[in-house]
Target: DNA starvation/stationary phase protection protein Dps
Amino acid sequence: MATKRQATLHPTKHPLSENTRGAMVELLQAHLATALDLTYQTKQAHWNVKGMNFIAVHKLFDELHEEAEEFVDSIAERLTAIGGQAHGTVHAAAENSLLDAYPLDLVDTEGHLRRLSDSYAKWSAALMKGVEEAGEAGDDLTEDLLTEVGRGIDEGLYFLESHFQVVDTSYRKQD
Ligand SMILES: [Fe+2]
Model:
C-alpha cells in the first residue's frame, strides 16, 4: 500500500485557510495525475489506431490530446496558486491517476473509441465528486475549474460515444 504523502504548502497570502488549501491541493493532485494520464492515453490511441474512418478518428484523438494538455496546465496552476507543489511528472501521474491502465495492444478504431470512452466516463464521475468536495470546502474557484474540466470531458465522451451509440431507427419503418 502506498504511503499517504503530506501535501506540501508554500507560504502565501491566499485568503483560503491552510486546511482548505491542503485538502484542495490533495484533490487537485489526483486530477492533475488523471489529466496527465489522459494526455497520453489519447496520444496512444492517436498513434496506433487503424481501421475504417482512420483519418477522422486519428485527428479526433489528437484534438482530445490537446484539450487534455490544457486541463493539465489549468489544474496544475490552480494547485500552485493556492500554495501547492504540483506533482506533474509522468512517473507521479502513473502512481496517482484515477484511471485504469490503457491497453498497449489496442488497434481497431472501435476498440480505441470504446476504451477511451471508459476513461472519459470514469474521470467524469470523479470530477463530479471533486466539484462537490470543492464546493463543500468553500473553494469556489476550484469548484469552477473542475466544473469547466468536467464540461470538456463530458463533451469528449459524447464525441467518442457518438461513433458507436446504438441508434433506434424504428422511425424509418413508418413510411
Ligand atoms: Fe500526430
